[in-house]
Amino acid sequence: MARAKPALEHARSTVGIRWITTVGKFARRKPLGAMGAVIVGAMLVMAVFAERIAPYGYDDSIRGARMKAPSAAHWLGTDNLSRDMWSRIVYGARVSISVGFLTVTLAVLAATAVGVSSAYFGGAWDLIVQRVVDAWLSFPYLIIILSVMAVLGPGLLNVVLSLALLLAATNSRVIRGATLTAMQQTYVEAARAMGCGHARIIVRHLLPNVTATIIILATIGLGAVILAESALSFLGFGVPPPHPSWGGMLSGSGRTYMLRAPWMAIWPGAAISLAVFGFNMLGDALRDVLDPRLRGS
Amino acid sequence: MLKRYVAKRLLVAIPSLLIASLIVFTLPRLIPGDAVQLMLSEKAYARDLAELRAKLGLDRPLYVQYVDWLGHVARGDLGESLWTRRPVLEEIGQRLPVTLTLAAFALTFALVIALPVGVLSAARQDTPADFVARSAAILGLSVPGFWLATLLIVLPAIWWGWRPVSEFVEFQADPAGYLRQMLLPALILGIAASAALMRLTRGMLLEVLRQDYVRTAWAKGLAERAIVLKHGLRNAIIPVVTLLGTQLPQIIGGTVVIETVFGLPGMSRFLFDAINQRDYPVIQGVNLLVVSTVVLVNLAVDALYAVLDPRIRY
pLDDT truncated to tens, each residue of chain B (314 aa)? Predict the structure, then answer.
């Protein structure tokens, strides 16, 4: 036991050093990607520790502070209901991150199930699924999401469901393509010749080989989902007030008072852009690193 | 051969269009509460509600309504708006030019920005110009159109006291004014589309510029301009044209927000209002028209490949 403990600590420190080296190498090779990772990390911290970071609650009305310009007391100013803009932006990160991660998780799970099964089983199943996906993809995304949101009604969970439905259709097409490529490899043929069942071939041989595609789709999808959520909230179909959604903050009072208190319209949009920029940068860098076909380009 | 290919593609498109029509028909009917409840006051008698439903044909089973609607669509009749009682096709016809002008301008802006920047970025790979172009493209993809629109209204108003005209100018009244009011909204839509196009142009051109025939062209002593534009861009353009086709639904989707922000009476805003009013025939009509256009544009894009690349034969 006495010997095992230092060995374990040594192994831990080796893993730690290796991890730091990998991160350092990634940052050197992809400085824009590293910048994206820092933005995404900051957003995650804001979302998780919103109560500690925000000086006020998201719906706290501060006496005598109606539409105050940015100052030392209120970094980003206050809105028409005397609420601190910085606090609302911090809490808004929670909405964007929750919608982003929940939607992408749901969409990726559904897209993987549909894409992999469609490619693997082929035949009538593939034909029917692909025609439905074709039809779904012919709709302009905002129009179909608005129609789905009109059916489901506003609310965080409904935003997640409608966005996931759309993202799953797009992603399933890409995952199907990646699975078809993986199926051409000889190791799949070998697995089949050895008598492996469908489940084993899919789980052990196909899924690990489409994981890189799935990670890239998820990271790039996060930015798109945050952007789509903000557009939905802007149109009044997103997360209902008083919950602070960045898109929602830009519509309604944000636009009504934009000439008298421009900070009400400027900061939420800047937050959306920065967040999406971060996810896009990180997604791009991950694609370059994880997709061997794009390596060196 | 091209004719046969187009006919085959049209046949393949029919099932997709039928599924799309089913989605288009079913979705608005799943919206809680129906148009009749909205049209009559909350205190309306149940008998009045039932009477109006029967008059509008909304009391029949869904599949009967669907088949009936599909039959009318096949004859070019998209029905009547439940609110204005005017033919949907006529209502769309009034608003379509606004959305089409907006989309055409946006596509033009997208191409005018994307192609030169993408070519420059690829020809000067890993230089500061490339770095700036790539970062700008990602920024263009990240900035929401409605925020950009807000900034372009707020900042000039604060700095120079300049405000865009808020009243819509009809084409017949002032053609120049009509086109001028489209420029800013179209530019905002075009910026987002140009970002994706620029990235693809750069990526494809980089791949082509590594080919042996390009090295041969360099060895022959051709000018860089001829190598990049004639040998490079022509071979890299096909995926860019494909993306241009897929950008159309994105641009039409984007018009929903932009028409709302700028108060343009286009088709997307009409659809947005129809969704809020549960005006089924309008929602179905506009959606079906948009989907059919997208399918046809994609078909046209496929047919265009043969023109752009003589090696492609259908």
Answer: 677 877 877 787 788 788 888 888 887 777 666 666 666 665 666 677 777 777 767 778 888 888 888 898 889 888 888 888 899 999 999 999 999 999 999 999 999 999 999 999 999 988 899 888 888 888 888 899 889 988 888 888 888 877 766 678 888 888 888 888 899 999 999 988 898 889 888 988 988 898 899 999 999 999 999 999 888 888 888 878 877 877 787 788 888 888 888 888 998 888 888 888 878 788 888 888 888 888 888 778 777 777 777 776 65
Query: Rounded to 5 degrees, what angle do the CA atoms B73, B74, B80 make?
Result: 20
Å from B56 to nearest chain A CA?
A: 21
How far apart are alpha carbons A96 and A245 in whole angstroms?
Answer: 7
Q: Read off the tokens for A106.
A: 């749901």
Torsion from C-alpha of A275, A280, A283, A288, nearest 10 degrees: -150
Give the residue among A80, A14, A136 at the shortest CA–CA distance from A249.
A80
CB of B114 closer than 8 Å to CB of B201: yes
Beta bridge partners of B87: B80
The two tokens of residue A188 are 């799949």
Q: Taking CB atoms and an 8 Å cut-off, how many pairs form between chains A and B?
A: 143
Question: How far does A136 lie from chain B, in Å, by closest CA?
Answer: 7
| Whether B245 contacts A133, CB under 8 Å | no
Closest residue in B to A33 (Cα–Cα) = B135
- Spell out the residues 6+ positions from residue B63 whose beta carbon is closer than 8 angstroms to its own: none
Q: Which residues, including other chains, have CB under 8 Å from residue B113's CB and lie 6 or more apart?
A: B190, B191, B194, B198
Cα angle B233, B189, B244 (rounded to 5 degrees) comes to 35
Do B233 and B197 form a contact (C-beta atoms < 8 A)?
no
CB A132 within 8 A of CB B19: yes
Residue pair A272/A246 in contact (Cβ under 8 Å)? The answer is: yes
Structure tokens at A40: 């995404």
Cα A196 to chain centroid, rounded: 35
Specify the amino acid at residue A117.
S
The DSSP output letter for B168 is P
Phi, then psi, of B258 in degrees rounded to 5: -65, -40
How far apart, in whole angstroms, are the C-alpha atoms of residue B138 and residue B148?
15
pTM: 0.82
Using the Cβ of A148 and the Cβ atoms of chain B, whether some distance falls under 8 Å is answered with yes
Q: Which amino acid is at B136?
A: A
CA dist B177 → A109, B160, B170, B173 (Å): 50, 21, 8, 9
* Cis bond upstream, residue B144 (ω within 30): no
What is the token pair recorded at B257?
């927000």
Structural domains of chain A ordered from first start? 4-290 (1.10.3720.10)
* Residues of chain A found within 8 Å of residue B158, distances taken between Cβ atoms: 259, 262
The encoded tokens of residue A224 equal 């798109």
Contact in structure between A106 and A172 (CB atoms under 8 Å): no
Chain A residues lying within 8 Å of B125, measured CB to CB: none
